[in-house]
């Protein structure tokens, strides 16, 4: 069973940066595509960024150019570098994964989810 544990959330002022991490375990090397999602209370979960097994990346338009998704396969860790944060970026951020080779922002494709890490951005 794949397990995902996020960390790195916190409070930051508008324009600041945070780096989220997600440590994965219980899977075969290089068989997972992974992504970051976020949810604001009262709204549906939103895809933020995804990376496939070949390192290809996709981003939501709202974060493109400000956020960067990356992974360290030796550490089985997924990262989300968030720069130029805005109050609208405040949310619970989730790491997710599925067995497959393509990157995706579609929540329905994802089989495994972490518990989330909270990001707060003050204006």
Helix-strand blueprint:
Elements: E1 3-7, E2 10-13, E3 18-25, E4 32-39, E5 46-51, E6 57-59, E7 67-72, E8 77-82, E9 91-99, E10 112-113, E11 117-122
Parallel strand pairs: 2-11
Antiparallel strand pairs: 1-3, 3-8, 4-5, 4-9, 5-6, 7-8, 9-10, 9-11
Q: Can you walk through the features of this model?
A:
With 123 residues, the chain is mostly beta strands. The chain is built from no helices and eleven strands. The strands form two sheets. Strands 2, 4, 5, 6, 9, 10 and 11 form a seven-stranded mixed sheet that branches. The termini are far apart. The mean pLDDT is 94.
Short structural summary:
This protein is mostly beta strands and 123 residues long. The chain has strands at 3-7, 10-13, 18-25, 32-39, 46-51, 57-59, 67-72, 77-82, 91-99, 112-113, 117-122. It is built from no helices and 11 strands.
Q: What does the radius of gyration come to?
A: 13 Å
- Which residue ranges are poorly predicted, with pLDDT under 50 across at least 5 consecutive positions? none
- Characterize the largest beta sheet: strand count, sense, and whether it forms a barrel: 7 strands, mixed
Please give the share of residues in helix: under 10%
Number of strands: 11
Jot down its keywords.
123 residues; mainly beta; seven-stranded mixed beta sheet; globular
